[in-house]
# Entry
Amino acid sequence: MKLALYSPLAKLLIFIGLIFLFLGIFSVIFPIAYLHIHLLFGGNATDMLNPEHTIKDWAFLCNMQLWTSICVFLVPSLLVAHWYSNGKTGRYLFANHLPSPAQCLTAVILLIAITPFIGFIGEWNNQISFPESLSSIETWMRQQENAAQDIVSQILNVENAADWLFVFLILAISAGITEEFLFRGVMQRLLLEKFKRVHLSVWVTAFIFSAIHLQFFGFFPRILLGAFCGYLLVWTRNIWIPVLAHTLNNAAYVATEYAIKQEWTTAEATEMDISWKGFAIAIAGLAIFVLLIRRFKNQQTAQYRQEILSSTVKSIFEIKPEEINRTFSDEK
# Structure
């Protein structure tokens, strides 16, 4: 039986199962493969078997990040897109044509407009403190946050331009493409097939997108970024637009870290000010963003919903008896 005929829930569960399957396979194969390559180039096996060493091994962390994105995010997304569309992978993902310059420019302007608001929410989120009764949970969340940040800091701990370009490839381009294909290209589509509501599918996808990073103190700004990318796909019906926005957002982070490393600026100077001035800037940016999207929201949202639902093959469990009778009557 073709997978395209399965119910939306079944297709979503198959997709999630496939992600975990590839994660499990990758978790076994990658360390073994990297160890053999490490030994091939004269490395020390003892070092590679020591977790304290691998967490500081720049090449290991970079390759793990890159190949995790490709093997766990991109490959399952391409596979289910191929299976669920009967081979029309590009059309399923809205990746079968390049965006226009006007669409790209609009996305960049919208990103610039919404960034101060997302930054303000990020600083507020980072300063959240829990009640004393939940201090143990807060401590665990801070430890998870610090562990994730330590890995990113190790990846960013480079000096020469070639290494910075490789970091840019991993954290900006690779992450932008693979995460958007998975979350906006497949998951958001499957949730729309299930819920039949565009806004619900966008925000649930954004919630999952943020939660999977396991960083609570960046949870809310990441939800906003996920929803922004989701709506970009809704309005343009082109996956390369949210890919562009996601890549530029991550690229700005990498560029900022590079500027701090080169002592062109300071970390304090790049932080969003939690004050009335910072709040005013954030609200002004949000107002510009809202004014710009008013020309998109209604017609494009309906078209996105119609295009997905009209191309979705109903499963045998979703077909009503009267529809079957009508089909037989038409054939007669």
Notes: Residues 327-332 have pLDDT under 50 and may be disordered. The radius of gyration is 22 Å.
